[in-house]
Write a structure and sequence with these properties.
Helix content is about 90%, strand content about 0%. The protein is built from 3 helices and no strands. The longest helix has about 35 residues.
């Protein structure tokens, strides 16, 4: 079981290091795409806005998972013991 706890701890560190960058990148790119969507004609604006909102929500979800990563790690390691 010690191997599983070590594996979960390493995943926590990976999520903290790469996840913050990915979250910020998705939120920023979503904002830029949404701004560019305003320059498009009406028939293509909706597709661009949908993609931008999807990027933004993805960034927020990743940030939420990173915020709860320690709780997720501690609960999952307690389930295995």
């Amino acid at each position: 079981m010690a191997y599983v706890e070590t594996l979960l701890s390493s995943w926590l560190e990976v999520m903290k290091s790469a996840g913050v960058t990915l979250s910020l990148l998705l939120i920023i790119v979503g904002g830029v795409v949404y701004g560019l969507a305003q320059l498009q004609p009406g028939d293509t604006r909706g597709r661009w806005q949908s993609m931008a909102i999807g990027l933004f929500i993805g960034g927020v979800l990743i940030a939420a998972i990173i915020g709860a990563a320690e709780v997720i790690q501690s609960i999952s390691s307690n389930l295995l013991t």
